[in-house]
Amino acid sequence: MDICYGNSKLIDVCAEPYAISFSFYSKKEIHDLSLVEVICPIFFDKKGVSILGGLCDLRMGVNSKKDVCISCNENYLSCPGHFGHIDLIVPIRNPMLKNLFFNMIKAKCNYCNQFRISNWRTKLFFFKFLHLDLILLFKKQL
After folding, report:
1. Any idea what the Cα angle at residue 41 is, between residues 35 and 46, rounded to 5°?
2. Torsion angle, CA of 92/98/102/105, rounded to 10 degrees?
3. What is the rounded distance in angstroms from the CA atom of residue 103 to the CA atom of residue 116?
4. Where are the domains of the chain?
5. Alpha-carbon distance 62 to 105, whole Å?
6. Handedness of CA 100, 102, 105, 106 (dihedral sign)
7. CB–CB of 50/56 below 8 Å?
8. Could you read off the pLDDT of 93-126 as tens digits, one per residue?
9. What pLDDT was estimated at residue 3?
10. Which of 15, 104, 110, 114 gets the most CB atoms within 10 Å of its CB?
11. How high does pLDDT run on average in the chain?
């Protein structure tokens, strides 16, 4: 089995997965992991300094080679980065997950070359995922 990356490099994988599972953090878990609540949609002030509570808050990691992380006191190369969160009024779906989920669903069986999920179930799941934000908003209004 090979895995192809964006630049068309292939790497051999010595084991094939037998299952895939995804989960999402709960609101409490997100708040527990987060060091910063992002409340300002601006990256830097007029002087080019990171804004506290902004998108490039230094508590989430360093922005340039000269900075030191406020959270872990590490430099640009050593700081792994830290989580922040944005509290939204309504839940929204992550549009970057659409292609990942669709490719996962349409995965074929290695032996019989058939879909692991029937075609109508694939379409139903994909439709539900595309409209997840509307479903959640509707449930919240009830």
Report:
1. 105
2. -40
3. 12
4. 25-87, 89-142
5. 38
6. negative
7. yes
8. 777 777 777 776 666 676 776 656 666 666 777 6
9. 47
10. 104
11. 76
**Both structure tokens of 132:** 């997840």
CA distance linking residue 59 with residue 74, whole number of Å: 11
What's the predicted TM-score (pTM) here?
Answer: 0.55
Beta strands in 42-118 (DSSP E): 84-85
Amino acid letter for position 32: D
Question: What Å distances lie between residue 119 and 2, 47, 102, CA to CA?
Answer: 25, 55, 12
Q: Where are the beta strands (DSSP E) in 30-138?
A: 36-37, 84-85
CA distance 78 to 58: 14
Domain 25-87 in CATH 2.60.40.1120? The answer is: no
